[in-house]
Write a structure and sequence with these properties.
mainly alpha; 81% helix; globular
C-alpha cells in the first residue's frame, strides 16, 4: 500500500505542477454552473436534472484530457523506464495512477456541492426536499468518472502520442456510452435491447442517477474498471519484454 501511495503522490504533484489541472477544474465548473443557473435565470427553474443529464457527455471530453498524458508522456520523455525500476509491481503502479486520477475527479465533484445547496435553499418546501436523486446522481457521476478514467488510462498506455491517447479514450468511452443510450436502443432489434442496456454506460448511469442503487449497476461499473485496469497492467508488463 505504501508503494501505491507513493505513486499517487507523484501523480498528483505532476497534475498540479502544470496548468492542466486548473484548466480542467475551471472548464468543468463553468460548464456545470452554466447548465444550472442558465435555466434558473431564464425560466426560474432550479433543479439538477440538466446538471446530471449532460455529465456523461461533458466527461467524454474532459476525462481523456487529464488522462492522455499519464502513460503517453512517460513514454515520450523517457521516464517510463525509470518508473518501471521502482520497487513496485506493475499493478501497483497502475492502481497508483488510477487512484490519483480518481482523487482529482473527486475534488472536481466536491467543488460542485454548491449546486445542491443552492437548489435546497431555493426550494419552496424544504421539508419535502428529496435528497435521494441528488445523492444517487453524485454516486453515479463518481462511478462513471472512475470508468472513464480506467478506460482512458488504458488508451494512454497504448501510445506515446497524447493526442492519439485522447482520441482513443474518447472513442472507447463514447462507444460504451452510446450503446446504452436511447438513440441506439430505439434502433436495435428487441432481442438486443436488454444486452445493450446491460453493457451501455448511459443506461447504468441513468438507473443509479435516479436514486435507485441497484447492486447490478455497481457491479457492472466495478467490473469494467477492473477489466481495463487489468488490460493496462498487461500492456505495461509487455513493455518489459520488448
Amino acid at each position: 500500500m505504501r508503494r501505491v501511495l507513493t505513486i499517487i503522490g507523484r501523480e498528483l504533484r505532476s497534475y498540479f505542477s502544470t496548468p492542466i489541472a486548473y484548466v480542467f477544474l475551471f472548464i468543468y465548473l463553468v460548464a456545470t454552473q452554466g447548465f444550472f443557473f442558465y435555466p434558473f435565470f431564464l425560466i426560474g427553474e432550479a433543479d439538477l436534472r440538466r446538471f446530471f443529464t449532460w455529465q456523461p457527455v461533458f466527461l467524454l471530453f474532459l476525462i481523456p484530457a487529464i488522462t492522455m498524458r499519464s502513460w503517453a508522456e512517460e513514454k515520450k520523455v523517457g521516464t517510463m523506464e525509470l518508473l518501471m525500476t521502482l520497487p513496485a509491481r506493475d499493478i501497483e503502479i497502475v492502481l497508483g495512477k488510477f487512484l490519483a486520477c480518481l482523487a482529482f475527479w473527486a475534488v472536481a465533484l466536491v467543488l460542485t456541492v454548491t449546486l445542491p445547496w443552492a437548489v435546497y435553499h431555493l426550494a419552496d418546501q424544504k421539508e419535502a426536499f428529496d435528497w435521494g436523486p441528488i445523492l444517487g446522481g453524485y454516486m453515479a457521476l463518481f462511478l462513471l468518472g472512475a470508468v472513464y478514467i480506467a478506460i482512458c488510462l488504458f488508451a494512454s498506455s497504448l501510445t506515446e502520442n497524447q493526442i492519439v491517447a485522447f482520441i482513443l479514450g474518447l472513442a472507447a468511452c463514447g462507444v460504451l456510452l452510446l450503446i446504452g443510450s436511447g438513440l441506439i436502443l430505439f434502433t436495435v432489434p428487441a432481442g438486443l435491447v436488454k444486452p445493450f442496456q446491460f453493457v451501455g454506460l448511459w443506461s447504468n448511469f441513468d438507473s443509479v442517477g435516479r436514486g435507485v442503487i441497484d447492486s447490478r449497476n455497481v457491479i457492472y461499473y466495478l467490473s469494467v474498471i477492473a477489466f481495463f485496469l487489468y488490460l493496462n497492467a498487461v500492456i505495461i508488463e509487455s513493455r518489459k519484454w520488448k
